[in-house]
From TrEMBL:
Transmembrane segments: none annotated. This is Aldehyde dehydrogenase family protein. GO terms for molecular function: oxidoreductase activity, acting on the aldehyde or oxo group of donors, NAD or NADP as acceptor. The keyword Oxidoreductase applies. Belongs to the aldehyde dehydrogenase family. It comes from Saccharopolyspora karakumensis. It comes from the Bacteria. Residues 19-460 form the Aldehyde dehydrogenase domain. Keywords: Oxidoreductase. InterPro entries: Ald_DH/histidinol_DH (IPR016161), Ald_DH_C (IPR016163), Ald_DH_CS_CYS (IPR016160), Ald_DH_CS_GLU (IPR029510), Ald_DH_N (IPR016162), Aldehyde_DH_dom (IPR015590), LUC3-like (IPR044086). PROSITE patterns: ALDEHYDE_DEHYDR_CYS, ALDEHYDE_DEHYDR_GLU.
Amino acid sequence: MFAKADDLVMVIQPETGGTEIKDPATGETVGRAPEHARAHLDSAVDAARAAQPGWDALGHAERSSYLNRAAQAVEDNAEALAELLSREQGKPLNGPNARFEVGACAAWLRTTASFELEPEVVADGAELHYRPFGVVGAIGPWNWPMMISVWQLAPSLRMGNTVVLKPSEYTPLSVLALAHVLNTALPDDVLHVVSGGREIGEALVAHPHIDKLMFTGSTETGKAIIRSSADTVKRLTLELGGNDAGIVLPDIDPASIAEDLFWGAFINTGQTCAALKRLYVHETVYDDVVEALAGLAAAMPMGVGLDESNVLGPVQNKAQYDIVTELVQAAKDDGARIVVGGNPVEDQPGYFYPTTLVADIDDKNPLVAREQFGPVLPIIKYSSVDEAVAMANGLDVGLGASVWSSDQEKAHSVAVRLQAGTVWINKHGAVDPRIPFGGAKQSGYGLEFGVEGLKHLGQPQVISH
């Protein structure tokens, strides 16, 4: 059991060399991450491939038992993991952030272990089975590095695959530490992590002995993965960019939904694929919704994650900070109204961008049309529901969406018109390990979570008598 983040870092960082990882809130060094070469990747894939038949032979019940033991290991080391995550990713300990993320890792492991997956009788004498692919390669993002890694590895392992995981180069320590903790409970060689930059990721995608690939990240990178995987005809699960829309209907009480709207947009300081990133509000309630959100935005404490009072943190890296800054400036240049925020303090440590609401903005403005992935929410006024639906569906992405109304029937009638993999009613981004999740249009393909997500980690096989 690890008491502190530094204890974990000492175990996972190389004795010499490596890449220095800095806290995005303070600029202080968190630790050093290994830079693995192609030979290390090949060795990891070979070891995972050798271990896979024995892991498969254990059967679902025994593999589920291992996942439960892995969940317990996460819980036993939860505070050290959360502290490391806060320091490396920037998210605060409290609120829906670091401690929440570590808790979600354990919950996803246990829930995935609980699913029943039996052969399906599809016709007389014909059964549909799901067999493991072999070795699953997984590439994760920097926004929820631990939790999304578990989203990838838990169902892969449960199905009898072994896993080689590559974390984002921005947050490798969190994933290396998580894997170290998980491997205290798992058999040898069923889970490996390779750490490095773009080259090691490209090698993993193209590797001839990776049978299935899971990726969470940008649409552009997802397209590159599709091209790179073609020669080996890898099976793919891709969860790509979102730019999720929300529609507030005129019958709503703004005060009753303001907090849920706020966290739907600003969870993890807006750095979430399925966060609410553009909000369409009917003209009759527009001013009241903007005012209610402004009061919350101004009151939410932002700062260094290890300060227990903070619930919002920095943008995780300079490249993303620059994108957020550029998009807010585009809104200003177009005459949009900055309700709260929009004025980052220069010459301060950390990539802090203030919580920002932008009103009276055109739907075609870059802040609306592009995924900002930061603590900024554009709020667009509409006159008719048809207009709102057309704007919400007007982009080439469709991960999630939401409808906000006091009338469930009205909300449902709008929800079915939205082009998104998930549409929430009176909430946004509420993922659940039991409920399948995946994108429409260029937000990716394949499903995660639930029994349906589990099936996507298996090769369908029909046995017909």
